[in-house]
Amino acid sequence: MVPLVLLVVVFYFALIRPQQKKQKQQAELLKAVKSGDRILTNSGIIATVITVKDKSITIRSADAKFEITKSAVAEITERSGESSEA
Questions:
Q1: CA-to-CA distance for 1 and 56, rounded, in angstroms?
Q2: pLDDT of 5-28, one tens digit each?
Q3: For the chain, what is the domain count?
Q4: What is the rounded CA–CA span in Å between residue 75 and residue 11?
């Protein structure tokens, strides 16, 4: 019985807990997206956010305008109004 309990504990700390942290960070990232931010989508598109709705985001990349779901945002590369002094 002890090896089974140890196996469950190892799985929790090795797989489940890191995944929960990642989901929490992604949810915070999606709440922080605002108009003017530069983002990278999961498909590799780098774009500027035009409008943010409940479940979707309108973005502009080069001459194209897209509406994507919020879950397609991989990261915010540059915040609006933020200088590049790092």
A1: 48
A2: 999 999 998 999 999 999 999 999
A3: 1
A4: 28
